[in-house]
Amino acid sequence: MAELNVDLVAAVRKVWSGAAREVSAPSAEGQVGILAGHTPMLAVLRPGTVKVSTAAGQVAVEVHVDGGFLSVDDDVVTIVVDEVTEVSGRESALA
Amino acid sequence: MAGGSQRVYKQRIKSTQSLKKVFRAQELIAASRIGKARGRTAAAAPYERAITRAVSAVATHTATDHPLTTERTDTNRAAVLVIASDRGMAGSYSASIIRETERVVARLQAEGKEVALYATGRRAISYFRYREREMAGQWSYGSDSPQADVAGEIADTLLGAFLAPEAEGGVGELHVVYTQFVNMVSQRPRRVRMLPLEVVEGVAVPGENDALPLYDFEPSPEAVLDALLPRYVRSRIFSFMLEAAASELASRQRAMHTATDNAQDLIRTYTRLANQARQADITQEISEIVSGADALAAS
Fold this sequence. Notes:
The complex is a heterodimer.
Chain A: E1 4-9, E2 14-20, E3 22-27, E4 30-34, E5 41-45, E6 48-53, E7 59-65, E8 68-73, E9 76-81, E10 84-89
Chain B: H1 2-61, E1 77-83, H2 93-110, E2 114-120, H3 122-130, E3 135-139, H4 148-163, E4 173-183, E5 186-195, E6 216-218, H5 221-298
Parallel strand pairs in B: 1-2, 1-4, 2-3
Antiparallel strand pairs in B: 4-5
């Protein structure tokens, strides 16, 4: 199954980047889940939790965001947030 | 008399040596910070890239008119944001950024526009204050390591001015003057027109045959743009500030390196002069002794 290419970036640094199976984010109209093959989308995020899961079903990164936006284009998911307030999970997956 | 000049030279050598130590220390400090500054510029790059891509995606896929992208015709005020340094000791860094600002201001005034100055960095602030030029906003924030929240504050002020009605001092355009970091030896002042937004940099124009992806906007293109554009401006201003910081440190390192070299040259010159003076003293003493002995022998 195709994978998503995820970049999670904050204003001052890159928080996480890598391949993932599923991304869940709090869009303006409700929590959205994104799998490979999603239509191109640009969504405004409201405060909430962004969760990225890898192919094995593990949670790669789970962070609380205050707002930002998310873009999906050709299985490339970019989540842009102003600030990440609390990071759990394997942040070190990013070299 | 001759002994006096020896002492003077010794004194100068000593004071130049301590100055040299100061210059050397400043050079090393700048050198150690520059790597960090460039690292921060690099760290902020993905964010800016992502935002730029998204902004251009919205811009190419929708025909929405947003206040930030449209020209204002109701006001002829223009804002100029100067990003200068807080401290000197950076050679011509402050002078050249201020000169570029004056050029931009002069050009805008020649176009019949009223200029509102926004200054960051104590050097620019004191320059304009000394000349009794009114500043619409000023920030001094530690120009060699700018923080994202200060950039946000500056951007919010400027966006506020841009969106304000004409009567309340709204501005029709926003120019930013900062120092571009070309490489370690070359930094040049640069002017960028920030608002209204026009060309989005760094995005490949899709070819004729490339099918443009059809975007879903959530909740709506306008709302997405509303959320995106201020962020875009904020991240651009932050990246300008980071780049200016790297430039400032590079200029400082270079200026302090030159100062160290000059101090070394001075020390060498004074040492030579001191040696010469000592030699002259000795020669004089010998000739005094010889002539004294001659006089005794002759008597």
